[in-house]
Amino acid sequence: MTRTALDILNTVYGYPAFRGHQAEVVDHLTAGGDALLLMPTGGGKSVCYQIPALLREGTGIVVSPLIALMQDQVDALRLIGLRAAFLNSTLSLDDVRLTEELLRRGELDLLYVAPERLLQERTLALLDETREGSGLALFAIDEAHCVSQWGHDFRPEYLQLDVLASRYPGVPRLACTATADERTRVEILENLKLGTGRVFVGGFDRPNIRYSVVPKDNPRRQLLDFLRDEHDRDAGIVYCLSRKRTEETAAFLSQNGIEALPYHAGMTADARRRHQERFLREDGLVICATIAFGMGIDKPDVRFVAHVDLPKSVEGYYQETGRAGRDGLPADAWLCYGLQDVVMLNKIAENSGSDDQPVDEMHRRRQRQQLDAMLGYCEIVDCRRQMLLAYFGEDLPEPCGNCDTCLAPPETYDGTVAAQKVLSCVARTGQRFGAQHIIDVLRGSENERIRRFGHDQLPTHGVGQEFDAFAWRSVVRQLVAQGILALDPEGFGGLKLTAASRPVLQGERELRLRRDVLTKTASRRRAASPAALTADFDGEVDAVTAALFDRLRAVRKDLAAEQGVPPYVIFHDKTLAAMALHKPTSGEAFLRLSGVGEKKLERYGERFMDVVRSAETEAG
Question: What is the per-residue pLDDT across 114-165, written as a single tens digit (0 to 9) for each?
């Protein structure tokens, strides 16, 4: 009997139906077509190439930059009965030879390989041999945005993957990414020679993620309050701009009772591996990281992604926040930013490149555009999700109701006079001082620096008593975000007037500004019960069901430890929640749970059903 894509989805993966564009992509790739697939994190991109690899003759080759995660990805596939392996530098020579032989003999459904490894002549020769023998089913190029030189995760080796088009004509190729604006899409299609392939855009909206931005005052304390109020004992990622900041933030959280680990490129490879492995395999751990961490992270129960510094671009921000809530349950994207972040990012942009590879002016202009877009997102007074989706060319007709500006619409006021005071002070001090100095002048400070420059004698000295320093910082940030003030291009933070300053100064343009208020927000946690139990089901969760859920998680943890895999590879929280709520005690009922296929029923069904039966006996 010929297997169908839907049959494989039901029996192997344990899901009742395809979502979104999945069925279209599977059919297109199975028929031999090339494609570019844009689908949000957690949207099910992997199914789109794994199922065609099973339906076509030969082995599917998955190009992934994520060496540290290949083991877990392969383990997850093996647990549902697929023949999967990987080739990377972590394998012994004997293991490499065994994997190569399995490939030659056609005894693998899927092989994961890093781009650097794939491009070695030894690997290409192996693929040549396989194509002539058992066959190559397809190539899937994951994290395809890495091919874009304008992107936030550019990897030079990705540019060489165009060899697949010329060397293996007739073998379908699928480029996958969760993040790509229009320019990046064009680069992917051109650089990977996918010009004749179809483009599937699965939408960028992640409605389960709540977006919020707060003005920076004391970022570590603000982060701690956020975690204590809303994510006590939850797993999450905290992104920082520098390696030093990751170390300091992790230490601060740990000192305050939140288990946290740092992760950055300056650590040894072994330390990074250990910290990443702990994050993937333990519950409730927080990782404090630079952007070196996270691409392709499969952990589904990341309940928050926090940024204590401003991301470099909207693409980077979307990619990073997308690591929260992959299981579809409620999650938070929390960002804390200040003007000093903009100064630092400008400085990084100006100093990027090297003598051997200087960064041209076009690239710097693109970096400035990306930063301007990120600033605009932070300072918007309307729905954040609408702006975020519009950046990727997607329209959201109505405000989302799940971002801070929707949940608590900000107050605005006529800020024309306040802006004129700032602009006049910037002009009178010579357009070379930073925000703090300007604010000190406006508020009438007589510190030594102000007296030394004679700024205590200026007409603008002391004219800003109506606002405190926090409120003036808000005004300056918004003027920079709107292009009415600019930061000096050398990265030292000096404020300069722009062409847009004149109409404001001359009273020809009224300016409405957002009134920022620095307050500790009240907890908004939806319930004491885990999100998995409360998200998709109506009514209160009784104590017996909550206790059963905890017992099922404990069994899952034991099984994961026995098999050396992360707990979510056994079952997601969402599947355990369904077990706790529906209490299956037969194989037929167990198989009806989403995320349970035939192999997982065979491997784990009795172990979990025994727990359910015991709980039923105790309760009854």
Answer: 999 999 999 999 999 999 999 999 999 998 988 886 666 778 889 999 999 9
Tokens of 157: 């080796």
Q: Is the Cβ–Cβ distance between 376 and 314 less than 8 Å? A: no
Buried b (16+ CB within 10 A) or exposed e, 487-499: bbeebebbbebee
Tokens of 207: 């409605």
How many CB atoms are located within 10 Å of the residue 592 CB?
14
Please report which helix (H) or strand (E) contains residue 189, including its range.
helix 182-191
d(CA 593, CA 14): 8
- Ramachandran assignment for 223, one of left (phi > 0), alpha (psi -120 to 50 degrees), beta (any other): alpha
> Bridge-partner residues for 413, per DSSP?
513
- Per residue, the 3-state secondary structure of 458-523, as one string, reads CCCCCCCCCCCHHHHHHHHHHHHHCCCEEECCCCCCCEEECCCHHHHHCCCCCCEEECCCCCCCCC
**DSSP label at 13?**
I
Residue of 309, 338, 336 lying closest to 474 (CA atoms): 338
Length of the chain, in residues: 620
Token pair of 10, please? 């039901």
Q: Strand order in 35-38's β-sheet?
A: 84-87, 110-113, 59-63, 136-141, 173-177, 35-38, 198-201
Q: How far apart are the first and last CA of the chain?
A: 45
Q: Which residue has the tokens 């999100």?
A: 531
Nearest to 595 by CA among 294, 383, 367, 327: 327
DSSP state of 132: H
DSSP 8-state class, residue 248: H
Tokens 């020579």 sit on residue: 93
Read out DSSP for 539-595?
Answer: SPPPHHHHHHHHHHHHHHHHHHHHHTS-HHHH--HHHHHHHHHH---SHHHHHTSTT
Q: Count of CB atoms within 10 A of residue 586's CB?
A: 10
Q: For the full predicted model, state whether its pTM sits above 0.70.
A: yes
List, in order of start, the domains of the chain with CATH numbers.
5-201 (3.40.50.300), 209-337+380-407 (3.40.50.300), 412-514 (1.10.10.10), 531-619 (1.10.150.80)
* Sign of the alpha-carbon torsion through 341, 344, 349, 352: negative
Structure tokens belonging to residue 155: 């990897």
- Identify the bridge partners of residue 337 per DSSP, sorted by sequence position: 215
**Over the stretch 181-239, which tens digit does the pLDDT of each residue have?**
788 888 999 999 998 899 998 888 999 999 999 999 899 999 999 999 999 889 999 99
Residue 33: which of 112, 138, 127 has the closest Cα? Answer: 138
> From CA 212, how far away is CA 560, in angstroms rounded?
34
Tally of CB atoms within 10 A around 382: 13
Distance (Å, rounded) from C-alpha 179 to C-alpha 375? 19
